[in-house]
Amino acid sequence: MNNFQRAYAISNAHVGRDFEEKAYQFFASRGIKLQKDLLVPVGVASLRKMRTFDLGNESEKILVECKLHKWTFGENVPSAKITVWNESMYYFHLAPEGYRKIFFVLRDHSPKRNITLAEHYIKNYGHLIPGDVEIVEYKYGKHIGKRHLGTRASDTST
After folding, report:
1. Which of 2, 48, 74, 92 is deepest in the core (most CB within 10 A)?
2. Burial (CB count <10 Å: 0-12, 13-18, 19+), residue 85
3. Which contacts qualify for 29-37: CB closer than 8 Å, 24 or more apart?
4. pLDDT tens per residue, range 73-125
């Protein structure tokens, strides 16, 4: 095991796949049918390249990216993970118009900062979030989400 692997996991890849399955089940319980590893053309102007989104539905025009990131052990900002979130926002920006774009993340609250990681991201990186991206924070065991659209937050059961 390395320093960056979760202590309870076989590998970080397994943890990520398990979280994608939770997202799949979350949306299915709300009547939203998704497939895993949806390929969609992304790019600038007419230059396009196929990119795989974690979940999606081509006929319903839905794209979902899943991130299971947490505050560091000292409740510091996981800056490398935030870079990955920025990359996801860029791919959402490059995705074809007309898609519902959902960023599905773990709801990880920092008692020290009194804010979730997603709320921190919106506060500090909101200028990078396309206005049509929904951020859904998932809380294990409760099957609930907190939804943010662009930089406007609202509690929902998406």
Report:
1. 92
2. buried
3. 29/143, 30/157, 30/158, 32/57, 32/60, 32/62, 33/57, 33/60, 34/62, 34/64
4. 999 999 999 999 999 999 999 999 999 999 999 999 999 999 999 999 999 99
Q: Which of 125, 27, 32, 110 has its CA nearest to residue 19? A: 27
- List residues bridging with 105 in a β-sheet: 67, 137
Confidence category of residue 147, pLDDT binned at 50, 70, 90: low
SS3 for the chain is: CCCCCCCCCCCHHHHHHHHHHHHHHHHHCCCCCCEEEEEEEECCCCCCEEEEEEEEECCCCEEEEEECCCCCCCCCCCHHHHHHHHHHHHHHHHCCCCCEEEEEEECCEECCCCEEHHHHHHHHHHHHCCCCEEEEEEECCCCEEEEEECCEEEEECC
**pTM for the full model?**
0.85
Does residue 28 carry a pLDDT above 60?
yes
User: At residue 154, does pLDDT exceed 70?
Assistant: no
Residue type, 65: E
